[in-house]
Each structure stands twice: as C-alpha cells, then as structure tokens.
Design brief:
Layout lengths: L2 E7 L7 E5 L8 E6 L2 E6 L13 E3 L2 E3 L6 E3 L5 E3 L8 E2 L1 E4 L2 E6 L1
Antiparallel strand pairs: 1-11, 2-3, 3-4, 4-9, 5-6, 6-7, 7-8, 10-11
Pfam families: Rieske
GO molecular function, one term: metal ion binding
Protein name: Ferredoxin CarAc
Length: 105
Amino acid sequence: MEKKVFLCRKADVPSESVIQVCPKEVEDGLAVYHVEGKFYATEDLCTHGMVALSGGDLQGTTIFCPLHGGAFDICSGDALEKPCTVPLKTYRVIEEGDALFGLID
C-alpha cells in the first residue's frame, strides 16, 4: 500500500532543476524535479553507476547521470542512454498548498 510522505516545499525546487531529498521512509533518497511547472520524483541512485542523479544534468524531462552520462526519462523512469538499461523507480507527486508529497510503496 502506498504511503504519503512529505518531500519538501515547492520553493525548495527552483524551476527547471532537481534536488535530493531524504525522507526516512526511503533508504537511498529521492530526486525531486521541477520541469515546466510540474513536479516529479524518482529514486535518486542511478541504476547503473550507483551515483546520485540529483547531481546530474537535467534537460527537459531527461536526467543525465554525472558518472557515465547515461540518461533517464523522469516521467516514466525509462533508461534512454547507455550504459543505463534498468529503469528508475518513479513516484507520484502530490501538491498540497506549498508542500510536495510523494506516494511511496
């Protein structure tokens, strides 16, 4: 069953950027993205290099891993560029007032 977990305040995530959040319910942290007025969340660790994606380059809805340059679609989690082949876990983001919550399973 999904659990609603506080991620951060909307103001914590500037437009067209990504930040790392570490709610206690998620072992390795999450990446929270603000793209074209919408918020997204994925697991923060690259499925290939085990490095934080929140330190990577965000271009539209694509995040590039800072280690090997692999890429993921932040909406679907799909791996887009090698060496990444395993998709990311994605989480639904709920906006309530100025707060962002994620639905974590």
